[in-house]
Design brief:
Helix content is 48%, strand content 16%. The chain has 265 residues and is α/β, with parallel strands linked by helices. α1 packs parallel to α3 (83-102) and α3 (83-102) packs parallel to α4.
Amino acid sequence: MIDTESLVLSARDGGVFTLTLNRPEARNALSDALIADLQGALDKATKDPAVRVIILAANGPAFCAGHDLKELTGHRKEYDKGAYRFRATFGECSTLMKTIVNHPIPVIAQVQGVATAAGCQLVASCDLAVASTEAKFATPGVNIGLFCSTPMVALSRNLSRKHAMEMLLTGDMVDAKHAKEIGLVNRVATPEKLAAETMALARQIATKPRTTVKIGKQAFYRQLEMRLDDAYDYASEVMTRNMMDAEACEGISAFVEKRDAKWPS
């Protein structure tokens, strides 16, 4: 029986693990419960050696509308006018985004609809993103007096400063074509081909050696924050450690011997 009540649905197809946001009636807004469920699903995936790639998808017309503002506003009735819960929610959401970036498994966003505010942050936090031609993106907090400061962190690490600032300062909606041009998404597909396009990309990556991908993803994000000299020193050390791994031994031997590599399981 398919569980249609869970806030995050999961499905396995070989080495590809798909997590689907399942709060369509609320445009998949990131309630505390949805954040917790997605966090738990991502944490669980780290313990499954069969998972090679994670796809993050969503049900309904919207990918994710950002934070659940109705839930947040409800906390204003509390003794501190909601400050404690606001801090907790933004902190938990930030932990979720960092989990995606620091996850040992590549995460691909499959964006079928609108992704705004923290929903846009979610897309930017994923390693790769495939968008439908009907998808749109925005960080519109400035329009309601709540600047998208946490989405800004992910956005500014994916786009040029001026493109990021334009989205943050105007709150304007960006279509999928422009999102690809400015580096927010990798590929754009028609709605009927979106799932197949995303799965094809995921399966391609899933064929790569697991430990090598883990090493490479971790090194990519770490070196981004370093000075050039430090980045090269760090990357050289990473490559040395990678060379000592069984995957590199097998892969290089297979290349020299002109045969297909047999990756360790």
